[in-house]
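The data layer described in this paper is built around a simple, fixed record for each protein. Such a record has a labelled line for the sequence and another for the backbone structure tokens. For reference, a complete record is included directly beneath this paragraph.
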Amino acid sequence: VSGGAVLAWLHVEPHDVEDRGTVVRKTIKNLKWHARKVEVDQVVLHSFAHLAEQRADPEISKEILAEIGERLESVGYQVHHTPWGYFNEFKMHVEGPGIAKVFKSF
């Protein structure tokens, strides 16, 4: 990804599937807020479940991440998805201000 972007490490748990609409809406709201704060229009969605105790079905997780991406694209964001199910290597620069690193759980 060239230029700045929000890199979102996302994990879908079983209870997220039960309240999918709310989870998708809150995720989009938070990603848009963060992108505005750091003044970027690119979002990278990365599925990250390696350390979790509970995981939603992988196919449903993929659907939810795809829905988040599609809805962000529909309002003007450039969305990138990392390859699903692979070990990925990241080379990145994270800005110094606290807003550059945000954790959200809902």
Summary: The longest strand covers residues 42-47. The beta strands are 6-10, 42-47, 78-81. The chain has a mean pLDDT of 89.
